């Protein structure tokens, strides 16, 4: 029986950086690492980003408390693990800035109530809760989900943002205020238009591309912090970004006139957020190191394939959910080779000759 | 060192070893009373062979081993047996410490069989904590070809410094003990595996190396990383050999011994002293004077800790063994046993209770540190769900219970406890399913015993009749010869059956120290009965032929 624990000793020295802290501290670190991304997003897209995050975060905790109460579990210790807050913040940054409250509400109910607690709470959810919420909203409310405000910065009308959040803005007003994401615009450029012609026509509000790149770099910075603190392992993000880069390069090299450049795919989309903060959700990911590599790489491939050939502009949510489905299978086929065994075990059961 | 020589995983917990190594090793004062449990080793408890009130001298055998995997227990002080229960023997000392020594042996010139017998009757067991009888390990040569004896001085668990201090104080004796055990095992070389956090012991050992003969000894200093002292991990690290799953170090030609065990083995042979004392670490922040002491077995733990300056108010929990794999002791009244390598009197700040458990988030931290390259989180899942098929698919029984996974788990899940419970449950199920078979084995044992008694009776009858009928002609000398041949074959087969049963028992006992061994012990006993019966029949047949032979000669001439 182990009476020592990595998180409870001051003199752990080397161990303190090489072993993870407890679950709550882990979640706090992830939230902390999101701050640069949130900051840069707010800088470019206005305080609508903050209304999203604050409302979804609070709603996440409220729903978690409610569900715990309904499930007759003690609320305080579970709530203090910050996992519901994290789900909320992740959904908040994924939604278009200043999304209406009901949109966020529907997404958070799907995330916390259905995807998390109906499956048994933290640790038992097969799907990434925030991505379940996001995917549901994307297929149910495609109009609202693709209305990204242009990067007008923080100098915008606070009152308008609040009205937008309250859902009191008419459709025409909304249309005037928002545009499309670069991915969205590029996806719908039409077959006839060459990529070079598309970009030459300045299809996006000024500064959009740059804003998205800044945001992506901020997520990357947060991700590097998580890697440095060993909160997440490098396997999933590296595999995902690596496979995205490889496939995007291949497609771009084959036909640069109709495919986005690798840099476009990596830095003007949700790729960085997805790679470091979403695909790395350990609960719904594959668990072994080898499994994580396959899992990450498959998400990357799916993202590029769905972006190129699918109906929706971005595909991180769908790719992550699809691979969540495959994670148990990966776990059965990616065991390490245990010490003293000549080969790793594969599949559901031991081969008959090994059973004792 | 090359990557090939690395075992997977491992952790770096705080070492906390220095407080108990600042003072030299010393002998604890002679206790006035000792309590000696009959089971201080793995396997069967010993059977008491003294009466209440009987006077015993230090070193006198007070309980005999029962079955093959078991060990003798000796009086650790001289005095009178005051109490005798099913589990322990209490001796009230007379303060004289009157010794009963066995004859001194020189291992270089003594027959191996006598040396093995000496280890057997000295009650020497593995002193690293597991308590596996050393005389069984000394016989491993009968079944395996060995090339290397490893002195496991890694001592990777925090706090424990007993091996470190043993080596600093008795380096030459430990090396000679290693030569003795290597000689018995038929090994060709000796390797010492020691972690680099013991510079003093390393310096003393490297000085002593050149004096160690006849086998070459190599000192291998390895990086400190828990659990490098696990047998399988150490063998991988030193030799890049992997002990097969479910196998023993002997399967890859290696035998591992702890320094304390080697010292005890040497003392049993060279000095004729059975195992009546051991070196142990007294440490923890609730002690004013942490140290290593040589204590008589059976000494009260409470009394021993008092001499080290125990502050009972600050004592939060008492641990026997290390903080990673040891056990919490509920009482200060318990005695020091052969398995007590370390006592930690910890304060609450020092080893705080584990924070409340949270759900597993499958982060995989446990996988990264598992020194057997298992998937602890999957094991946890299926152990809680009691899905035993899955547990065997994830190799539950390859887990060495080192506690590295529990140490790093961010959700504070007592993983090793889960695994132990699951193993216990599965062992119990196996026992239940084997019950019918076990009953059959017991029946076979009874039959074998009756057959042996019958054979012996027959032999005695024959002998008497033979003595009386010297003159009667043999019915058929050829038939007698064929009979003898058949009996000889039967005897050899019975001998092989004993070997086989012993091998199965020794193997199981070493693979899984918690396994119930009574069924295998019965099978060994049955095989032995059969052998004795076969030998009795053979002997009487031989006697008959011998008495017949002169007559046959006469008839021929």
Automatic annotation (TrEMBL), chain A:
Assigned keywords, A-Z: Cell inner membrane, Cell membrane, Electron transport, Flavoprotein, FMN, Membrane, Phosphoprotein, Translocase, Transmembrane, Transmembrane helix, Transport
Translocase is among the record's keywords: yes
Subunit organization: The complex is composed of six subunits: RnfA, RnfB, RnfC, RnfD, RnfE and RnfG.
Organism field: Vreelandella zhuhanensis
Gene from which this protein is expressed: rnfD
Name of the protein described by the UniProt record: Ion-translocating oxidoreductase complex subunit D
One Pfam short name: NQR2_RnfD_RnfE
Chief location of this protein within or outside the cell: membrane
Flavoprotein found in the keyword field: yes
A GO CC annotation given for this chain: plasma membrane
Cofactor(s) essential for the protein: FMN
EC number: 7.-.-.-
Automatic annotation (TrEMBL), chain B:
Keyword Metal-binding appears in the UniProt entry: yes
Every 4Fe-4S ferredoxin-type domain range: 350-380, 390-419
Subcellular location(s) per record: Cell inner membrane
Chain's role: Part of a membrane-bound complex that couples electron transfer with translocation of ions across the membrane.
Enzyme class of the recorded protein, top EC level: translocase
Membrane topology: Peripheral membrane protein
Needed cofactors: [4Fe-4S] cluster
Binding site for [4Fe-4S] cluster 1: 360, 363, 366, 409
Annotated EC: 7.-.-.-
Name this polypeptide is given: Ion-translocating oxidoreductase complex subunit C
Basic and acidic residues: compositionally biased ranges: 454-465
InterPro entries according to UniProt: 4Fe4S_Fe-S-bd, 4Fe4S_Fe_S_CS, Ion_transpt_RnfC/RsxC, Nuo51_FMN-bd, Nuo51_FMN-bd_sf, RnfC_N
Biological process terms in GO annotation: electron transport chain
GO cellular component: plasma membrane
Predominant location: membrane
Positions of region (Disordered): 1-23, 454-482, 505-557
Gene: rsxC
Residues involved in [4Fe-4S] cluster 2 binding: 370, 399, 402, 405
Pfam families membership: Complex1_51K, Fer4_8, RnfC_N
Subunit structure as annotated in this protein's UniProt entry: The complex is composed of six subunits: RnfA, RnfB, RnfC, RnfD, RnfE and RnfG.
Low complexity: compositionally biased ranges: 536-547
UniProt key word DNA damage: no
